[in-house]
Every structure is written in structure tokens, then in C-alpha cells.
Automatic annotation (TrEMBL):
This is (2Fe-2S)-binding protein. It comes from Gallibacter intestinalis. It comes from the Bacteria. Keywords: 4Fe-4S, Iron, Iron-sulfur, Metal-binding. The keyword Iron-sulfur applies. The keyword Iron applies. The chain holds residues 199 to 572 of 572 of the full protein. Its cofactor is [4Fe-4S] cluster.
Length: 374
């Protein structure tokens, strides 16, 4: 990975949370929920020699149950919330003269880089929490306010991420509510591999299982967040009026896909043309920022991922090569294509979360402010 601001690859030891996670799994007073990021799923299959993800994903669910997690969920549910909140913020800034370009905020490697090197851009960065944090925020809030949950034990959220920087994100003060982190532990893809080995689980011997509702349900738009360009594609699906398969196919050919480190698209929106850049790698991001600040380039929206090709190439993943990146990205797009729900608003559990949990409290639960340090 190139999340150099936080994990100069291999140069420092990243704190391992494996022992702590075993402890909570074995604690009978804890209700342990696990959320798995889509980029993790597509890399793990290849690690265990099951390259067909349609077959592998339900086997991974079975493995997580066998490890002892109580409820198996998917970070893509959080990504569906992010798509809605981030596109609302984008539309609001477009229509009310807010700061543009709007930069995406789901990559903590990028946030840290901006804080250290470009504090002048902090107000351009979306206030949206990352999908991981939106997910944890909602499930913990539900535990706090609902009398109807069948499992009333203390909730614990474990997130399995392609990313070492997510460990740091989970601990950030800004994400705490009432002084407590919403995501309790972050394991990398590699750490999950270690746990599966420690438990002696043979994946090929498991029968496929389905994740749990309500938070194991997600749209295809929430899946493609794992690859550079995916956030943009998901947001465009929300901005267009026509939400059918043909319209989504057109968007997929607009230039949002592909493993290039810098991509640009223009999309029509209410009589104007929106210019969007998608960039992966912090060196490439620096070049784009220079162009924006010198006036050489103008964008309305910029999606930034610190790792090459986005989270599929994250620092917590098994080794990434051009070939594995291409395969992982193909799997994510295939996963989207076979989803019955292709855009985030159509996820019925997202609607339910807004009605019953988030209500009008989006700001407290789903957003965050990165303050400039004095
Ligand atoms: Fe983490 Fe993804 Fe950002 Fe890499 S691109 S630092 S894996 S969030």
C-alpha cells in the first residue's frame, strides 16, 4: 500500500488486534458484530484458492460464523449510506454555492495526508464519515435506542478492512460519540487470514451461508467502493434521473472504470456539466491538487484513494500485482452486476435505518468535522 503518511509500508509494526478480537469473541457478555469490506472479500478468495467470488463470499460468511462472530454484516451497507449522504452534500454545495471541488472522505490515508500537507483543503473535504464509520455509528445507535433487539448484550463492532490506516481512523477522537469509538476493532485482510489459520478452519470444507439482515444487505453501488472510481460511479447513479440497467451501463462506460491512476469524466446535471476527477496514489493526488490550485484544472468533485487502484490494493491486503488488482476489480464489478439492488436508495434496509435509527440526526451520526489545528 501507499498510505505512506501512516504506514510507510513495512517500516513500522502495525498494532495487531487479533488477540483482543479473540477475547471479545470468547466473552459471553458481548454481542460481536463483524462488518467486512468488499475489497477484503475479493482478495481473500484468491488467497485461499477459490477465485470465483460468487462461490467464495458465502463460504467466507460461514468461516466468520465458525470463528465465533455473532452477526455477519457487510461494510457495503455503510457505503450505501455514504453514497446518499455524500451526493446530498454535493448537490447542496452545487446549488447553494458551497466550496468546490468537493473531495471524497472515505480514505483515512488521504485525510491524514490532507491534514498534514493541505490544511487549506479541509473545508473542501466531504463531512461524510467513511462507510466503516457510518456502519458502526448506525448499529451502535440502534443498540442504544432500541428495546426490541433480541440480543441485548454489550455491542462490539469488528471491521475487517483492506487497510492499516483504518485502525487509526477507528480510534480518532472526531468519530467518538459520548466519548466512545463506534468501531471497536479493525482487522486487516491479512489478520483475518491469520485468525482463520489459527482456528484451523478449512474453507473448502464449509457449506456456503448467507450474511445476516439487516446490515448484510447492500446495493451493487455499495460494493464498487472498493475500487478507484467506484465512489464516483455510485454517486453518479444517484444523480441521474433514470435508474435502470441501461442507464447504469452507460455510466459504467463513461470513463469511471479502469485501473489508471487518474481518470476524468464529465456528466450533465441540470443544465450544466460536472467535471469529476478520480485519483489513486498520493503522488498523483498531489499533482491534481497543484493543477487545481494553480487554476490549470477545474473540478466539481474529486475522489481520492491513497492506495494504487483504491482499496483493492490496500496496505492490509495480500500482495497486490497488476494482475491481482485487475482480477479484484473485475470481481467487484461482477458482484455489482448480479446484485438485485443496483443503487443505494433502493436498499430497503437503508430506508429502514433512516426511518428508525438515524431520523433527523444525520449530522451527529453520519458526519464529522476535521478541524484545522491552531
Ligand atoms: Fe485504506 Fe482504501 Fe485509503 Fe488505501 S485507499 S488507505 S486501503 S481506505
Amino acid at each position: 500500500g501507499q498510505c505512506a503518511a501512516i504506514c510507510p509500508t513495512g517500516a513500522i509494526d502495525i498494532k495487531s488486534d487479533i488477540d483482543a478480537v479473540w477475547d471479545v469473541i470468547n466473552d459471553k457478555d458481548k454481542r460481536v458484530m463483524v462488518q467486512v469490506a468488499p475489497a477484503v472479500r475479493v482478495a481473500l478468495g484468491e488467497r485461499f484458492g477459490i477465485k470465483d467470488n460468487e462461490r467464495f463470499n458465502p463460504i467466507l460468511v460461514a468461516a466468520l460464523r465458525k470463528l465465533g462472530f455473532d452477526e455477519i454484516y457487510d461494510t457495503s451497507f455503510g457505503a450505501d449510506l455514504t453514497v446518499i449522504e455524500e451526493s446530498n452534500e454535493f448537490i447542496d454545495r452545487l446549488e447553494n454555492g458551497g466550496k468546490l471541488p468537493l473531495f471524497s472522505s472515505c480514505c483515512p490515508g488521504w485525510i491524514k495526508y490532507a491534514e498534514d500537507n493541505h490544511p487549506e483543503l479541509l473545508e473542501n473535504i466531504s463531512t461524510c464519515r467513511s462507510p466503516m464509520e457510518m456502519f458502526s455509528s448506525v448499529v451502535k445507535e440502534e443498540a442504544a435506542i432500541s428495546d426490541e433487539l433480541p440480543d441485548k448484550r454489550t455491542p462490539v463492532v469488528v471491521a475487517i478492512m483492506p487497510c492499516t490506516a483504518k485502525k487509526y481512523e477507528a480510534d480518532r477522537e472526531e468519530f467518538k460519540i459520548n466519548g466512545e469509538s463506534r468501531t471497536d476493532y479493525v482487522l486487516t485482510t491479512q489478520e483475518l487470514v491469520t485468525m482463520i489459520k489459527q482456528a484451523g478452519i478449512v474453507l473448502a470444507s464449509l457449506d456456503p451461508e448467507a450474511p445476516d439482515i439487516n446490515y448484510g444487505m447492500y446495493s451493487g453501488a455499495g460494493v464498487i467502493f472498493g475500487v478507484s472510481g467506484g465512489v464516483t460511479e455510485a454517486v453518479i447513479r444517484r444523480l441521474v434521473d433514470k435508474k435502470d440497467a441501461a442507464s447504469f451501463t452507460n455510466i459504467s462506460f463513461s470513463g469511471v472504470r479502469g485501473l489508471e491512476s487518474v481518470k476524468e469524466v464529465e456528466i450533465p446535471y441540470k443544465g450544466r456539466t460536472l467535471k469529476i476527477a478520480m485519483v489513486s496514489g498520493l503522488g498523483n493526488t498531489e499533482k491534481i491538487i497543484k493543477k487545481i490550485e494553480s487554476g490549470e484544472a477545474h473540478y466539481d468533485f474529486v475522489e481520492v484513494m491513497a492506495c494504487p487502484s483504491g482499496c483493492i490494493g490496500g496496505g492490509g491486503q495480500p500482495r497486490s500485482t497488476r494482475r491481482t488488482l485487475a482480477r479484484r476489480s473485475k470481481e467487484l464489478y461482477a458482484n455489482d452486476k448480479i446484485s438485485r439492488i443496483r443503487h443505494s436508495d433502493a436498499n430497503p434496509f437503508v430506508g429502514r435505518a433512516y426511518r428508525e435509527i438515524i431520523k433527523d440526526d444525520n449530522h451527529r451520526l453520519l458526519h464529522v468535522h476535521y478541524a484545522k489545528e491552531d
